[in-house]
Amino acid sequence: MATRSAIGYFKNGKVYSVYCHWDGYPENNGRILLDNYNTFKKVKELVSLGSISSLGIEIGEKHAFDTIGLSVEQTKRIENMTTFYGRDREEKNVDAREFEDYFSYYKHYYDSGVEFFYVFTDGEWYYMPIQPLFDFSSNPPISGWTKLDSYFMKKAA
Fold first, then answer.
1. Which of 9, 80, 87, 95 sits 20 to 30 Å CA-CA off 62?
2. From CA 89, how far away is CA 148, in angstroms rounded?
3. Half-sphere exposure of 112 (CA within 13 A, CB side)
4. Cis ω on the peptide bond leading into residue 140 (within 30° of 0)?
5. Interacting residues of 67 by C-beta distance below 8 A, sequence separation 6+
6. Nearest to 106 by CA among 80, 132, 67
């Protein structure tokens, strides 16, 4: 079973985001985002490629969507690359989405079964696990959101 997440960034009062199907919990996708997508330029590039099947430590290049039938060498070459539904499986209607505010972003993905939410804003990653709806439309929303690096500091303590 997948652990779905939404990954996005906040700019000019809006949230731009994509769906990510696999391994959305902080110990996987959160750690990958924090360690490898830590500039606005990198985050924007990631989101610009649309919905994600599996987040990798690098964006990479177009590659096979599935590793079945690939050689060991081929599999090794793509193992760190992010796998996108549009770029790598040529699906349609999987582009990044634009939301007017955090509430719209959260509500859309909440209704889609997403379990973890990530937003990059002011050079920092924030995350929030799914929870009952409440009004957190302030930008950036502090209530309910946790700085991702703080999450890992608490876990290490």
1. 9
2. 30
3. 18
4. yes
5. 74, 75, 78
6. 132
Chain mean position to CA 17? 7
Measuring CA to CA, which residue among 40, 47, 37 is closest to residue 6? 47
pTM of the model: 0.90
Phi, psi of 104 (to 5 degrees): -65, -40
Question: 40-84: per-residue pLDDT in tens?
Answer: 999 999 999 999 999 999 999 998 898 888 888 888 888 999 999
- Compute the half-sphere exposure of residue 80: CA atoms within 13 Å on the CB side of its CA: 6
Contact by Cβ (8 Å): 56, 87: no
Exposed e or buried b per residue across 59-85, where buried means at least 16 C-beta atoms within 10 angstroms of its C-beta: bbeebebeeeeeeeeeeeebeebbbbb
Domain assignment of residue 55, given as a range: 5-156
Domain total in the chain: 1
Query: SS3 for 111?
Result: helix
Q: Looking only at Cα atoms, what is the longest distance across the chain? A: 50
- The continuous run of DSSP H or E covering 53 comes out as strand 52-54
Owner of token pair 């985002």: 33
Which structure tokens are listed for 86?
A: 């549009």
Structure tokens at 67: 């590793």
